[in-house]
Specification:
Layout lengths: L2 H28 L7 H16 L5 E2 L2 E5 L1 H13 L3 H21 L1
Antiparallel strand pairs: 1-2
Helix pairs in contact: 1-4, 2-3, 3-4
């Protein structure tokens, strides 16, 4: 077995594990788990303001030490799929996948 094929198998296994984790998260989100909370509601409100009112917040509403990236991702998915809790959570699932991939590459 060459070194190149062994490394390829590890990359494939990591990709499979990451894909499985993302699919599991998508399934749980589609089933409505976990229940939403007030922080997620605030992000949804921010995403709605970004998507439909043209607002551009830099920080999280009421907490000026948190960024608004999650709300911007939610706004993009709101525009694509319509406003829903599932659309809002798609941005976090995307960030989860990027996090898992970056942790593997480290």
């Amino acid at each position: 077995m060459s070194k190149r094929s062994a490394i390829g198998k590890y990359h494939l296994l990591a990709l499979l594990i990451i894909a499985l984790a993302v699919c599991l998260r998508l399934l749980l989100t589609a089933l409505g788990w976990p229940t939403t909370n007030s922080d997620e509601g605030t992000i949804g409100l921010m995403a709605r303001h970004i998507a439909y009112n043209g607002e551009h917040p830099v920080v999280f509403y009421s907490r000026n030490y948190l960024g608004a990236l999650e709300a911007y991702l939610g706004a993009a998915f709101f525009r694509l799929f319509g406003p829903s809790l599932f659309s809002l959570r798609l941005g976090i699932i995307l960030l989860d996948a990027l996090f898992f991939a970056s942790m593997y590459l480290l």
